[in-house]
Structures are given as C-alpha cells and as structure tokens.
Amino acid sequence: MALDIINLTKKFGDQVALNDVNISINKNEIIGLLGPNGAGKSTLMKSIVGALKIDEGQILLDQKDITTHDIESKKKIGFLPENNPLYQEMFVKEYLQFVANIHGIKKNRVDEVIELVGITPEKSKKISQLSKGYKQRVGLAQAILHQPDLLILDEPTNGLDPNQIVEIRNVIKEIGKEKTVILSTHIMQEVEALCSRVILIHKGNIIQDSPISEFKGKYESLEQAFQSYTEAKQ
Ligand SMILES: Nc1ncnc2c1ncn2[C@@H]1O[C@H](COP(=O)(O)OP(=O)(O)OP(=O)(O)O)[C@@H](O)[C@H]1O
C-alpha cells in the first residue's frame, strides 16, 4: 500500500484548514497523527477517505488519484470517524451484515470480525444499548470488515475506560502488523504504545514527520516534545 499526499490544501471559506500538505507512506506501519485542537487532523483524515472535497493538490493511493478512482480507493480504505456514527436502532450483527452487503463480502467475514474485536457476547444487542467501548468496537469492526489496506482511525480510544483502551489498542496493534494504520489521538501514551512514526500537524501545516524516537529527540517525554514543537509555532 502506498499513500501519497501531494500539495494538499483545504479551505473552509477564508480559513485554511490544510496548507500545502505533503505526506508519503510506503510501508505497513502505525502512524500517529498529532496536533492541538483544530489543527486539521480530522480534515486530513476525511480528505484521505474522500469524504471531503479538497481544494488543491492530489491524494494518490497506489499511484491512483482517489477522486478519479473513487470506488477502487474506498475498497482499500477503512474509516472510523470521530464520534463513531452508527445506526443506533440496528442490532450489532444486523448492522455489520448490512455493511458487509454494501461491500459485497461474504457473511462469514462478519462472524470473524465480531470475534476479532471481541463483541461476540454483544452481537445480538441493539447498538443503542451498548456501552461506549462496545460501540467503539462496532465502529472498528465496520472499518475493517472489507480488510482494507489502509485504516484511518479518528481518536479511536476517545472516552473509553482504561481496560477498554488497552483492549482496543491490542486490536489496532494486531491490525497494524499487516496493514497501514493512521490514527489521530491526544494521548501521548497511545502514541508510545502503538506508533512507529509521528506526524505532527499545527494550524494546517505539517511541522514534524519522523520516527517516534526522532520526534522525542532531546525531550524527556512526548508531551514535552509536542508542547515545544507547537508552542514555538504559535
Ligand atoms: N465543515 C467545516 N466548516 C468550517 N470549518 C471547518 C469545518 N470542518 C473543520 N473546520 C475548521 O478547520 C479547522 C481544522 O479542523 P479539524 O476538525 O480538522 O481539526 P482537528 O485537528 O481534528 O481538531 P480536534 O483535535 O479538536 O478534533 C478548524 O479550525 C475547524 O473549525
């Protein structure tokens, strides 16, 4: 899987949410997308999955432009959006079968994914009745059902209890062995636990893109590094 983001600019009215962004990913790794509130992380993720129309630049997935190879690209990408929108009135397995039908994939893959994300005891419940952590797992399940090469996760552990955080991280880690994962988070521990590479975005600009050790550099912690890089650019 190769993802190339070339000179990407996205504006909302006069506001530049992404400013001439360039990113290249050529191997399977888990990448942490960091940045203060409003930095442009969700905008970048939505642009990559084709949910937002970009103003300038190109996004290439395996050398093909995602706008002109829309369906082909969507087959290769899984997305867990921020706030995890789900059909609350549907039952867990029913919902996942519905998503599987959209992708045109076999029914037994649904059971496989239910097992993988650890929601077997919850599969007959209505989504509205699930705890936040289980809803998050359902969101993750829909994102990986079609076995995408690239998985985009917008704050995947947001609002989960410590046990659920560890469990979801384990699932992501497993997936990251074979696929490329880009996840956004405000939790530096999460970055340390999962990511090999860090991309730091601030006010729509990429200000760091490096292996985690390089990102940490001379600083004692990732928090300190994050603070220093973003404060210096206020
Ligand atoms: N649909 C929209 N219309 C107008 N402005 C928007 C829209 N979506 C995002 N923005 C603006 O673009 C900027 C980047 O927002 P974005 O949601 O990408 O930030 P983020 O890094 O994901 O922030 P957070 O960490 O708070 O989730 C913000 O200033 C935001 O207000």
TrEMBL record:
Xref: Pfam families: ABC_tran
Domain ABC transporter residue range list: 3-228
An MF annotation (GO) of this entry: ATP binding
UniProtKB keywords: ATP-binding, Nucleotide-binding, Transport
InterPro entries: AAA+_ATPase, ABC_transporter-like_ATP-bd, P-loop_NTPase
CDD domains: ABC_DR_subfamily_A
Signal peptide per UniProt: none
Family: Belongs to the ABC transporter superfamily.
Record's protein name: ABC-2 type transport system ATP-binding protein
